[in-house]
């Protein structure tokens, strides 16, 4: 696995990334080992310490680990999307990923294959991402209308394929649409951990060009950066994140993880790097709070996570509003960048 | 200021040479048979009415677009093949739009000037020094950790100039850089550009305000699809090129202006 990652870091081949993702089945064995021998026992100890038995249940342990991964990769990719005013593309890709799931189920049923629907979802989402990007390269700008057409079109294809397939499969569809904690398998967690590593290292590696292209694409082009390459990288990463987070968050809500924590962080962050860090912190808080609430009250996990994230956003907005109204706070705020982070954490802690 | 020169670049050659360039968006002609040279160390002001093709000409000069016919050379190479991005500093018309909401600091923006030289890997001492010197040179060192979006329009424009200085660019291209900047800051801004030009930096400026251009530029090109004037400011104010370029119905008449 180390070898694979090293190679990825050097040449950024996405197809290879997906191929190795799907081929390296032994990743799942190591994830299983990690869950059984490291993460599981650790959580068991935590469960004893806090007197909360739910932390000891293997499926809750998987859910927490998955949520933590989503809260990492969502904002990391989302920060670049939101500031290029492309937040809608994550929603669009999520809905076409649903078509991908349907394609997988349909092919399995029609041709008696045993493809993972997640695999077809990855393929369909990545291909759509690149097609949308090519379209944009031709037209020159993102248009709400064309994204809305792709979004609804993808979802329409999905719904037709679901109904065209034998009735039995409609059963699992709710889990994809609204997300589910109970169905999080070791395989899902494995994919999320792997995605965290892939997305994390690609964004770390390509941080500078991604930042330049996000901030000022024309100047980046004049400076001879390969702007097209990095824009494509951005949408492919989005597709990967959206599909891997889909099973927990649900197709309909997954985009929130790429947008809401980022919007919250943008209110209070003192720099771009700090905004990524704060967005991840906000998302982690929302994810852990959401999963916990979901278990305690028996409510939907995706919805709980999104509402927790929106609550953090509201707090950040309030904090920012306060800073504008009170000149003294504002001065502190601009003089001491550390202040903002403390502020958000304090606000976050208060909600817990 | 000069960095590694390209093989085909020779002393005395123009820095940019536009030769008989024609360009259109689809069927709509934007530029016709434009020829113009930009000498190293000069300050070229591009003037012309709205939609006259000034920005397109600048894009062609920088190799961001390719002409339908004619050739453009940049630092002695075909402009679209030129790849030493660090030699070009570009401040686009809409550069400040994204800067307003994005939580990015002055220092982070100025560091972008080093990206063409060091897109990956750690910044060297030289990289960091170049950034500090650029901040110093335009007088924004004390603003370095402020968010760009929370600066005044005039301060923000200085950040973009500092980005070009950090990259140790030889050519500074400005496309209406002072839109939405108050009069006093504009004056300071153009004094700064004037000073930088005096140290050997070649400047191309697109600007609505003819007064600014005639005050600071060493050369003026007046275009409206065609080139109406190319020469020094003293001659420019004595010709009627401006009224011709602005006043003429560009679809009907065909002036023989040279």
From TrEMBL, chain A:
TM region positions: 12-35, 63-81, 93-111, 117-136, 148-177, 189-208, 229-246, 276-297, 303-323
Bilayer topology annotation: Multi-pass membrane protein
Domain of life, per lineage: Archaea
Location of region: Disordered: 333-352
UniProt-annotated location(s): Membrane
Name of one Pfam family that matches: ABC-3
Compositionally biased spans, kind Basic and acidic residues: 342-352
One Gene Ontology CC term in the entry: ATP-binding cassette (ABC) transporter complex
Main subcellular location of this protein, as a coarse class: membrane
Gene Ontology biological-process entries: transmembrane transport
InterPro entries referenced in this protein's UniProt entry, alphabetically: ABC_BtuC-like, ABC_TroCD
Swiss-Prot/TrEMBL keywords: Membrane, Transmembrane, Transmembrane helix
Family: Belongs to the ABC-3 integral membrane protein family.
The protein, known as: Metal ABC transporter permease
Organism: Halosegnis rubeus
Lineage: Archaea, Methanobacteriati, Methanobacteriota, Stenosarchaea group, Halobacteria
From TrEMBL, chain B:
InterPro entries reported in the protein's UniProt record: AAA+_ATPase (IPR003593), ABC_transporter-like_ATP-bd (IPR003439), ABC_transporter-like_CS (IPR017871), Metal_Ion_Import_ABC (IPR050153), P-loop_NTPase (IPR027417)
Keyword terms: ATP-binding, Nucleotide-binding, Transport
Any one Gene Ontology molecular-function term assigned to this protein's record: ATP hydrolysis activity
SMART domains in the record: AAA
EC number: 7.6.2.8
Reaction equations catalysed: an R-cob(III)alamin(out) + ATP + H2O = an R-cob(III)alamin(in) + ADP + phosphate + H(+)
Enzyme class at the top of the EC tree: translocase
Domain (ABC transporter): residue spans on this chain: 16-249
Reported function: Required for corrinoid utilization. Probably part of the ABC transporter complex BtuCDF involved in cobalamin (vitamin B12) import. Probably responsible for energy coupling to the transport system.
Subunit structure and binding partners: The complex is composed of two ATP-binding proteins (BtuD), two transmembrane proteins (BtuC) and a solute-binding protein (BtuF).
Family that this chain belongs to: Belongs to the ABC transporter superfamily.
Name assigned to this protein: Cobalamin import ATP-binding protein BtuD
């Amino acid at each position: 696995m180390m070898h694979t990652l090293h190679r990825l870091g050097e040449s950024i081949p996405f197809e290879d990334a997906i191929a190795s993702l799907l081929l390296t089945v032994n990743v799942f064995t190591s994830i299983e080992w990690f869950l059984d021998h490291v993460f599981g026992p650790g959580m068991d100890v935590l469960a004893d310490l806090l007197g909360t038995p739910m932390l000891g249940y293997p499926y809750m342990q998987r859910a927490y680990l998955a949520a933590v991964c989503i809260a990492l990769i969502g904002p990391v990719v989302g920060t670049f999307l939101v500031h290029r005013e492309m937040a809608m593309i994550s929603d669009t890709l999520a809905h076409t990923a649903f078509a991908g799931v349907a394609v997988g189920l349909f092919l399995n049923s029609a041709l008696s294959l045993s493809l993972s629907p997640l695999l077809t979802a990855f393929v369909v989402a990545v291909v759509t991402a690149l097609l949308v990007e090519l379209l944009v390269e031709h037209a020159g700008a993102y248009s709400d209308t064309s994204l809305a057409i792709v979004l609804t079109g993808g979802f329409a294809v999905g719904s037709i394929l679901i109904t065209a397939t034998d009735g039995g499969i409609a059963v699992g569809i709710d889990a994809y649409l609204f997300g589910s904690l109970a169905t999080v398998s070791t395989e899902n967690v494995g994919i999320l951990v792997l995605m965290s590593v892939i997305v994390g290292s690609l964004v770390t590696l390509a941080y500078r060009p991604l930042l330049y292209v996000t901030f000022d694409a024309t100047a980046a082009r004049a400076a001879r950066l390969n702007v097209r390459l990095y824009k494509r990288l951005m949408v492919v990463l989005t597709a990967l994140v959206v599909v891997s987070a889909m099973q927990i968050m649900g197709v309909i809500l997954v985009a929130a993880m790429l947008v809401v924590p980022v919007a919250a962080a943008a209110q209070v962050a003192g720099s771009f790097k700090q905004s990524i860090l704060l967005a991840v912190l906000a998302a982690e808080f929302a994810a852990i709070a959401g999963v916990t609430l979901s278990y305690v009250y028996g409510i939907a996990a995706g919805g709980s996570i999104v509402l927790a994230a929106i609550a953090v956003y509201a707090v950040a907005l309030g904090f920012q509003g306060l800073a504008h109204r009170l000149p003294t706070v504002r001065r502190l705020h601009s003089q001491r960048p550390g202040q903002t982070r403390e502020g958000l954490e304090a606000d976050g802690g208060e909600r817990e | 200021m000069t960095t590694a020169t390209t093989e085909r670049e020779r002393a005395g050659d123009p820095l940019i040479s536009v030769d008989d360039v024609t360009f259109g968006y689809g069927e709509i002609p934007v530029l016709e048979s434009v020829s113009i040279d930009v000498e190293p160390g000069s300050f070229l002001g591009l003037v012309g009415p709205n939609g006259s093709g000034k920005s397109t000409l600048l894009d062609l000069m920088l190799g961001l677009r390719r002409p339908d016919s004619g050739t453009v050379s940049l630092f002695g190479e075909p402009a679209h093949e030129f790849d030493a991005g660090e030699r070009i500093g570009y401040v686009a018309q809409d550069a400040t739009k994204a800067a307003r909401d994005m939580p990015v600091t002055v220092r982070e923006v100025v560091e972008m000037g080093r990206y063409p030289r060091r897109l990956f890997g750690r910044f060297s001492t030289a990289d960091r020094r170049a950034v500090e010197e650029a901040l110093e040179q335009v007088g924004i060192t004390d603003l370095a950790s402020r968010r760009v979006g929370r600066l005044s329009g005039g301060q923000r424009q200085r950040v973009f100039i500092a980005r070009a200085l950090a990259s140790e660019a030889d050519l500074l291209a400005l496309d209406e850089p002072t839109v939405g900047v108050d009069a006093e800051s504009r004056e300071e801004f153009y004094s700064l550009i004037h000073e930088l030009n005096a140290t050997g930096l070649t400047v191309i400026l697109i600007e609505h305000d003819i007064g600014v251009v005639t005050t600071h530029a060493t050369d003026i090109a007046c275009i409206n699809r065609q080139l109406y004037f190319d020469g020094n400011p003293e001659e420019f104010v004595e010709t009627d090129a401006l009224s011709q370029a602005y006043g003429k119905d560009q679809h009907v008449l065909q002036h023989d202006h040279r």
